[in-house]
Amino acid sequence: MSDVALVATQVRYEQKSYWRNPLAAFFSFAVPIVLFFVLVSTAGSSHDVAALGVNVLLKQYFTPSVLAFGVMSACFLNLAMTMTRQREAGILKRLRGTPLPEWAIVGGVIGSSVIVAALISTVTLLFAVLVYNVQLPASHVLPLIVTILLGAAVFCSLGIAVSALMPNADSAPALVNFPYFILMSASGGFGPVSGGVARVTSYFPLRPFITGVYRAFDPSAFGGSGWEWHNLATLAIWGVVGIVIAIRRFRWTPRNGLHEAGLKRFVGVR
Fold it and tell me: In terms of residue numbers, what domain contains 22?
């Protein structure tokens, strides 16, 4: 098989595995929509968003935030916890022992996560446009798609990199969710930020992603280009950082032998 066919086959396998858990898939799509409803349900008039220096409807402001939430959940959070769990359970070790190349295994996981992130973004965006009449010029659709796909790939690489730093599966949810929600709040995901906080978070990947996506929904930019080249460059740099860390630190074997001891107790081996 060609390299493309190998990755495509693994992506298909990962997609089958994902959709065979319909309850988890349902909430992956439902949570961003519910979050959007909660954030903008009272939005009906123009509000001054000081961090962006423009007057916008809250529904226009929170759309990129919810899109960022969905992409981060599907890529960064999901991969960081899933890869840690599979590593500590010995699943990655067994996959590595198959004829399938390591890069194809990782490529399949990333490809599947990007597909899920794209679907979540599409459903969320359709909900925002059809239900809340969020405005999106046709000329800004391509920049929006590129930004979302680039952000999904970057957060996948960071999720895999962070999984290499997780000591065990039990600690992964706390170690990943706690800094994520702090960064989400500080990056303007749940409300405008300005000053030193905005400057500091602009060096992290989440705020450039949110502001890059916001460009497509910014009424003051409707007559111009939808591209945010500086934010795209920042995301690309973080993608390289994630790849470098993942290559240098990623582990296929558990950090300890606890999973082996647990399996022996399960089957009654002394």
Answer: 3-267
